[in-house]
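If you are new to this repository, start here. Below is one unmodified record pulled from the training split, so you can see the exact layout before writing a loader.
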Amino acid sequence: MFPSRSLWNRLKLTNYSLSVVLLVPFVLLITGTVGLVSYLSFRNGQKAVNDLSSQLRQEILARIDRELQAYFSVPHNINQLSTIAFLQGELKMRALLASPDFFPPLDATSEPIEGAPEFFPCFAM
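And here is the target side for that same chain:
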């Protein structure tokens, strides 16, 4: 007797029709393939979303950093201009303190400062 015949009898596949014996492995193969492709697509989608969000976060941080650098450089530039003007003798402290333009109006301080001449009219050339 053939060994495959005894295996066939041990598995008791003789009770099933040929269509069931051929259809079940085919359905399992299709289901496994669809499941694997779905899983790989989902993982690839997750990676793409994570990469995109990481790039977006980095771009936002770079923009924030650039804006903060520009914002915080203005007072430093004003102090440098004041120091240079004082050291060159162009800035007379007693005359400035008596001047009504020494302290800018409050509404002028709420506007963005582009440079010292707009903020302190006494430095305008």
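Two things worth knowing about this chain: The chain has a mean pLDDT of 77. Helices lie at 3-11, 18-87, 93-98, 106-109, 116-119.
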